Amino acid sequence: MRIGDLATAAGVTIKAVRYYESQGLLKPRRESNGYRAYDAEDVVIVREVKALLSLGLTAEQTYPFIECLRAGNDRADVCPASLTAYRSRIDEVDRRIAELTELRSKLTDLLTDAESWRTNQR
Fold first, then answer.
1. Residue 73: helix, strand or coil by DSSP?
2. Over the chain, what is the mean pLDDT?
3. Which domains are present in the chain?
4. Cα separation values, 34 from 24, 43, 59, 106, Å
5. What is the pLDDT of residue 122?
6. Which helix or strand (DSSP H or E) is residue 29 part of?
7. pTM for the full model?
8. What is the dihedral of CA 89, 91, 97, 99, to 10 degrees?
9. What one-character DSSP code corresponds to residue 28?
10. Beta-strand relationship, 36-37 and 29-30
11. Of 40, 35, 43, 39, which is closest to residue 10 (Cα–Cα)?
């Protein structure tokens, strides 16, 4: 199939397919006329990458999942490297939650202080 067919089948844009290819996530074969040719496995890979990116993983962090699929697994997340990537993303989310919690606490303290000052000025 051609790039437009792949994009439609996977629910992404042609631009996204080209980006995935530039990141080494897709490896299309070339037809004799020079056109890229994709197959059903590529549809699965693009859908997986799209899902992983929506979870905040970077293109680079999707490599273990893609390799897991290419190794013949039915799921992209059953390989040890995929599980490690999940753990790494969870750690990133936990760090971000901690940062946001600290920021919220600081803002709340500043708001409380400002409201108290304003009340005492009356």
1. coil
2. 95
3. 3-120 (1.10.1660.10)
4. 18, 20, 26, 58
5. 73
6. strand 29-30
7. 0.83
8. -110
9. -
10. antiparallel
11. 43
Residue 21 burial by Cβ neighbours in a 10 Å radius (0-12, 13-18, 19+): middle
Residues in the chain: 122
Q: CA–CA separation, 60 vs 79, rounded Å?
A: 16
Q: Decide if 64 contacts 79 (C-beta within 8 A).
A: yes
Structure tokens at 78: 């059953």
Please enumerate in sequence order all residues whose Cβ is within 8 A of that of 85, keeping only pairs 6 or more positions apart, or say none: 57, 61, 62, 64, 65
**Tokens 């799209």, residue located:** 50
Condensed to tens digits (0 to 9), the pLDDT of residues 66-118 reads 999 999 999 999 999 999 999 999 999 999 999 999 999 999 999 999 999 98
Q: How far apart are CA 48 and CA 68, in angstroms?
A: 11
